[in-house]
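Apologies for my clumsy wording, but can you show me some protein sequence, whichever is easiest, together with the matching structure tokens, please?
=====
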Amino acid sequence: LSRFRPRQRTKAPPCSCGCPNTADVRGWIGVIAQRGKTGLSLDDAYLLAWRKITELNPLPATLGRICPHPCQEGCSRGQKEGPVEIRALERFLGDKGLEMALSLPVLDSAPIRASIGVIGAGPAGLSCAYQLARRGHHVALYERAPRPGGMLRYGIPDYRLPQEILDGEIERILELGIEFHPNTALGREISLEEIRRRHDALFLGIGAQLGRLLGIPGEEGPGVWTGADYLRRVNDGEDVETGVRVVVVGGGNTAVDAARTVRRGGAEVVLLYRRTRAQMPAFYEEVDTLLGEGARIEFLAAPTAIERTGNRVTGILARRMRLGPPDASGRRRPEPIDGSEYRIAADGVIVAVSQRPDWDRIEEIRPGGGWVEADEEGALGPDLWVGGDVRGPGFASLAVSHGRLAAEAIHGRFGGETETDVVIVVPDFEPASIKADFYDPRTPVEPPSLAPADALADPGAEVVATLDEDAFLREVERCYSCGLCFGCQQCWMYCTSGGLTRVAAPTPGAYFALTLDTCEACGQCVDVCPCGYLEFERTSSAQSTSTS
């Protein structure tokens, strides 16, 4: 004989499943939102949430500013008033960690003092170095530039990511005992073979910092930059003379960042993109901001030549495009329209269409197509792992994930165990299990931002501000806690058989114990559970009758 019984079952929430780093978003939000139910002070809740978020990501203040927040796309609250502003919450918690001078959590385990060389101090390398150092390994971090950060430092403008925020988060990572070697380019100052001799294993995360040109007449010479080179020069403090009329070519984030940076110098900006607005890979809100700051975008337009008088750029020739059949990316391929050529006057041109890793002096690795193919953990051999943009273009959060997974694999290679308590499985949460009407309506917060005129008047000012504490605490309350008990008491109030009892010392996800030997299987607890934590299972009478 079998029958249905209720059971408590934690499910992977849509926010974690949407995050490239599978962050425990529900976990660190819940610690703060539920502090009144668990007896934590606000400062203790901040500390515990900080430990949870930095378990997988040592750069929350950084990613809270620049990540495109795919975690928010599947947020169940989005079906009501709008998704929880996870990126703004992550940013607040990251800034709070800097404000409270919180140190990164070190794992308690027997140290396995392997020597690991990490090449590249961008998000992938920093993440890998952090995860290895906190497990007791000796880590040497090699970087071609004078300062760590990679594209976080040299590819993102200050108005999106202030240097002092990045410095604070990186300094905390290096304080774990990581040995930093600046101005040490692989293939120039040191060879891969030499680093191999020094260390037991290597992680390669050199990024994709070389911009590509278009292959059109006139692009070689003064007045033309790649987007990566232009942003690197500006972030390095160089006064780049672009002229007063600048054309930026491309539709990604580098193109938009370059265009917004040029506007801060007072120049007129036209951005050329060969597809439509809907197909732009750049963050939608950043494109909106670019337009608000006075740039013009020419959609369905592609350059054919750069016009020069002597060595001086005087204009760019372009032609109109139309969308044809889909290409390999699934997007409709742009096709030129005959007789549609036109000219745009310009003093400078920034080409931001693509970037690639710099393999020119690294003889040991010759990847096909410029990108390295590796398994999920990034393994490329018995002692070599890779991650970040060397595996293909991606978000910084994906690079952080690559570094973490490689570090865990390297740790396991030397006999260590993965001590993290965060396990995200294939999504099994059913959106239909959410009872949205149970939750009070709450309008999402909107991070304060500078008006375009104020942003242009103060080029170094951060455009979007961090939430204040009141707004932060209001926003965490909007989380539905999809797939995990948050102590609403609905099940306990509706249970008439005594099958649910309060836990003496509750924690997020553990508020009530379910005892099946007194359960009448009426199903009311499952029916009233608003977050989908309780569900039915078919249980034979021979099975154990208690769970918690």
User: Anything to note?
Assistant: Residues 15-104+451-476 form a domain with the Fumarate Reductase Iron-sulfur Protein; Chain B, domain 2 fold (CATH 1.10.1060.10). The two ends are 24 Å apart (CA to CA). The CA atoms of residues 44 and 386 lie 37 Å apart.
